[in-house]
Every structure is written in structure tokens, then in C-alpha cells.
Amino acid sequence: MTKSETLPAIRVSPRLREEAERTQRDGETLSSLVVESLERTIELRRLQREFVERGLAAAEEARAQNRHVPASTLLRRLRKQVEDSKNQRASRANRSE
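Request: output the structure for the sequence above.
Response:
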């Protein structure tokens, strides 16, 4: 078994400590709560980093294959779809009157 490491002590506001103590589950220590929070934050950041990396790779691939659509073009198309949808609704509403 590997020897465990110690993290530096952290200073928190009394309010944060009270909230942490209030949310503890039965048998849970503040230390285990901090460790779980740290593990979840590390995992979340890893997932976020991988998400961004996949997005950047996909954008690069789209550019390389000449499939890249500039944001301004995409937004213009989406605005047109919204406007067309509004017009269709208004047209249907006028017919039903």
C-alpha cells in the first residue's frame, strides 16, 4: 500500500465551515468531504479539458476538410430559421381566425 500524502491546511470562512458541517452525511468527516470534493473537481476539470480538446480537434478537422462554417454564417442561418418559424406560426394563427 502506498503512503498517503497530506494537503496543506486550508482556511475557510466560518459560514463555509458551518455549511460543510451541516451537509455532512452520517459517518462522514470533514476530511472525507474535502477529499470527495477535490476528487469530483479534478474529474470535472479533466472532462472539461477533454471536451475542449475534442471540440478544437473537430474544428481543425472541419477546416482541413473544407467543411468549416463561420459563426457569422451559422448565426445568420439560425436567425432565418427562427424568423421563418415565427412567420409560419403567424400565418397559421391568421388562418384559424
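The CA atoms of residues 29 and 77 lie 54 Å apart.
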